[in-house]
Fold this sequence. Notes:
The structure holds two protein chains of two kinds. Chain A is mostly beta strands. Chain A has a single domain (4-119), classed as Lipoxygenase-1, CATH 2.60.60. Chain A has strands at residues 4-11, 17-25, 30-37, 40-47, 50-57, 65-73, 81-89, 95-102, 108-119. In chain A, strands 1-9-6-3-4 form a five-stranded mixed β-sheet, with no helix packed on it. A four-stranded antiparallel β-sheet of chain A has the order 5-2-7-8, with no helix packed on it. By secondary structure, chain B is an alpha+beta fold. Chain B has three domains: 1-30; 40-154 and 270-419, Beta Barrel (Porin); 159-265, no CATH class. In chain B, strands 1, 2, 3, 4, 5, 6, 7, 8, 9, 10, 11, 12 and 13 form a 13-stranded antiparallel β-sheet that branches. Chain B is elongated and about 90 Å long. Classes of the chains: A mainly beta, B alpha+beta.
Amino acid sequence: xxxxxxxxxxxxxxxxxxxxxxxxxxxxxxxxxxxxxxxxxxxxxxxxxxxxxxxxxxxxxxxxxxxxxxxxxxxxxxxxxxxxxxxxxxxxxxxxxxxxxxxxxxxxxxxxxxxxxxxx
Amino acid sequence: xxxxxxxxxxxxxxxxxxxxxxxxxxxxxxxxxxxxxxxxxxxxxxxxxxxxxxxxxxxxxxxxxxxxxxxxxxxxxxxxxxxxxxxxxxxxxxxxxxxxxxxxxxxxxxxxxxxxxxxxxxxxxxxxxxxxxxxxxxxxxxxxxxxxxxxxxxxxxxxxxxxxxxxxxxxxxxxxxxxxxxxxxxxxxxxxxxxxxxxxxxxxxxxxxxxxxxxxxxxxxxxxxxxxxxxxxxxxxxxxxxxxxxxxxxxxxxxxxxxxxxxxxxxxxxxxxxxxxxxxxxxxxxxxxxxxxxxxxxxxxxxxxxxxxxxxxxxxxxxxxxxxxxxxxxxxxxxxxxxxxxxxxxxxxxxxxxxxxxxxxxxxxxxxxxxxxxxxxxxxxxxxxxxxxxxxxxxxxxxxxxxxxxxxxxxxxxxxxxxxxxxxxx
Lengths: 120, 426
């Protein structure tokens, strides 16, 4: 499975919040994420899971690009599996994307996510 | 003929892709994550390797299969499954990463309660009459387990996590800068602009409502053969190649990734301090192996508490109440009797682990609360385990069991158990 995701997220015509969640797997892995929205730095070196971070509203995200880089390092003593689940809520539909990679013991997987927002 | 060859090639290619896809699927369903079982259900059914369990080893799903020592030639007759339900619903806020604010380093009760919460199920099909187990019945148990006090990561673990995080920060910045630069490539920019154009085309369609336009866009996005989807896939592939270039450039400039790997490889997640676990459950006997003919076999609640040192050693205590309805017991010169027995166990266990080797000993004293005629009994077991590889472990246990309470003499327990753990992508 790929570690690179490029997707488009459809917005509503509303002022409702758009929320981003990043779920790190598997158990006992160590991760950090860097999130930008266009030129704006949203979160830098954020450790572990991110739950429902508001990154903007439906009305102000049109054609903006959200970029995420997440490094997951294998620190689990019992397995070498890494995975990243990206969840977007608040727009036309809730969307979840899962990526995963098995790495060598102690190695890191670098995940990239690019989400373009679009409002009709 | 040309068309025939094309059809054959297409079929073979499709088959090859299908096989590759199948192999990927098979690869994902693998055995891993072996740890000593922490299953309360198997304790109730009397086939747990140890009665006094270490603070829960985390696993989202673990399967334990056991055979009695006399029956290695056939399929296991005892099964236990542990499930961590909060891992299955991680998007609801339970963090299982090490450094997350609500992750495994958290000292908040709410966080480590969810992380340590395990539901276990066990099934026992006795080969022969043993204690109160009858070969004509099947026994099932449901158990729960969670931590109310969890030891913290020790100083060495915290230091290593800080160092790993620092290296991850440097890595993130390198990839961010590198990707921003490489994404300026004409092809990458074109693909993004082209997809916006495709969406704009739908947006400018007359006579369509907003909802209809959105639905059209979703159909286009979900269609893997559409130009839109192909553009997104190509951008993903470009990102992959950009990352490979950045990784190669980084390897030439510094040993950052190699150092990070060397450090992470030796991470053990050791903890130090007090631990208190609560466990309990209920088991049922299905007479004649029929699910419509059952009764409660036993039930209990217990606490395991103790201190865990940084070197992997632990001293743990046990306080356990068990209720056994309709227990049949034999006494000297008295005919068999049936009674509802309540027992209270107190115990002590020492555990030592280093690398692939683990060992220890446990002693438990059982008092009979509901009867003055039955003498107290005790259990003394030493066990050792060795991890053969990442997902196989041999466990050897040896000692005296409680059987004196129900039979006349103590029983020698010697069991060799092979355990497998199943994992998700744990």
